[in-house]
Amino acid sequence: MSSYTCSLVKERCIACGLCAVYAPAIFDYDEEGIVLFHQEPEATHQYISENHYASILKAYQKCPVRAILIEQSSNQSNRH
Ligand code: SF4
C-alpha cells in the first residue's frame, strides 16, 4: 500500500484560509494566518493517513499558490 506525505511551503502561503475549510482536521494557522499543521505546528511535512487523503487532496487542489504539496512514497522510512 502506498503512503502519502503532505508538505507545506510556508513562504508561498498567502493566508487565504482555504485549506482549513477543506481539511480542518489537518490545517491550522499561525497568528499571521500562515498555514501550519494542526497537530504538529513546527513540522513542514506530515504523513497522511488514508482517511484524511481526500480532504487534503481537495485542499491541495484549492490552494491558489501551491503551498501544499502531496508526495507519494512507497514506504514509511522517513516517519517521525
Ligand atoms: S490554501 Fe494555500 S495559500 Fe491559502 S492558507 Fe492554505 S496553504 Fe496558505
Automatic annotation (TrEMBL):
Pfam families for this protein: Fer4_13
Keywords: 4Fe-4S, Electron transport, Iron, Iron-sulfur, Metal-binding, Transport
Domain 4Fe-4S ferredoxin-type: 4-32
Domain of life: Bacteria
Cofactor: [4Fe-4S] cluster
Presence of keyword Transcription regulation: no
The keyword Secreted belongs to this UniProt entry's keyword annotation: no
Function description: Ferredoxins are iron-sulfur proteins that transfer electrons in a wide variety of metabolic reactions.
Matching PANTHER family: FERREDOXIN (PTHR39163)
The protein's name in its UniProt record: Ferredoxin
Organism: Enterococcus camelliae
Taxon lineage: Bacteria, Bacillati, Bacillota, Bacilli, Lactobacillales
